[in-house]
Design goal:
Helix content: 40-55%
Radius of gyration: 18 Å
Number of strands: 7
Bound molecules: flavin-adenine dinucleotide
Number of helices: 6
CATH superfamily of one domain: FAD/NAD(P)-binding domain
Distance between the termini: 45 Å
Largest sheet: 4 strands, parallel
CATH topology of one domain: FAD/NAD(P)-binding domain
Length: 215
């Protein structure tokens, strides 16, 4: 029996890995990436798995949480980790990469996969009949964020969540995301990679975050 094609929205870190893992297991994949046709407030290239701020994949010291996560990914055959090791730059106890080479290598690996069709377009609606992996990240385009909000609202209202509760969840996520963004923008870059700082002009806005539902 032929398996259904899996649609993956976003070729960032999560989407690129998911697409590659599906394809390696014989599953046909349609990978949607809106860059460079439409960009986000933080990304600067059309490459897949572009790291938007720090070039560090965090600690490589045994028995730390970031190490454990990487070790689990390595044992699961992660493409990203293999490429990260190849593109590593000196960073003490952390695993840091040359972000340009890293993204270029991921893009090349994905482009070589015969079971993968890459579509450079913005996805604005989700086909509810098929299998779709939403990996559009924290800077999801506004139209898709609206669609995710619509589907989440439909699902949560079926489970008895009120519109007010749904709005509170969205607000909490926005606050958490803002905190994460502030920390990320003030974090020092790890030496060896390409240093990147946002000017006020390029500093990401909250354009990709869905507005809370009004009850
Ligand atoms: C400003 C900023 C700084 C950050 N700094 C750090 C950091 O220093 N360290 C860290 O660990 N994490 C950081 N993060 C979090 C970081 O984004 C994640 O760690 C990581 O990139 C998430 O991977 P992802 O695959 O989920 O999303 P992303 O890597 O963002 O990939 C999502 C992809 O989906 C695409 N996309 C979005 N909407 C659509 C659409 N409608 N149709 C098609 N494609 C679409 C985007 O173009 C993008 O390529 C930062 C985030 C932001 C916003």
């Amino acid at each position: 029996m032929k398996m259904a094609t899996v649609k993956i929205i976003g070729a960032g870190l999560a989407g690129a890995e998911a697409a590659w893992q599906c394809a390696r297991r014989g599953v046909e994949v349609e990978l949607f990436e809106m860059r460079p046709v439409r960009t986000t407030p933080a990304h600067q290239t059309g490459d897949f798995a572009e790291l938007v701020c720090s070039n560090s994949l965090k600690s490589d010291s045994e028995n730390t949480a970031p190490w454990l996560l990487k070790e689990e990914m390595r044992r699961a055959g992660s493409m990203l980790l293999e490429i990260a090791r190849e593109c590593a730059v000196p960073a003490g106890h952390a695993l840091a990469v040359d972000r340009v080479t890293f993204a270029a290598r991921v893009t090349e690996m994905i482009s070589r996969e015969p079971r993968m069709v890459v579509r450079r377009e913005e996805v604005t609606s989700i086909d509810e009949g098929g299998i779709t992996v939403v990996a559009s990240g924290p800077l999801t385009s506004e139209a898709l964020a609206g669609e995710i909000g619509r589907l989440s609202w439909a699902a949560s209202s079926q489970q008895g969540t009120s519109a007010a509760e749904a709005a509170l969840h969205v607000e909490a996520e926005i606050v958490a995301l803002k905190r994460c963004e502030t920390q990320a923008l003030s974090a020092p870059d790890v030496s060896g990679g390409t240093t990147k700082r946002f000017s006020d002009k390029s500093k990401p806005s909250r354009a990709g975050v869905p507005a809370p539902h009004k009850p």
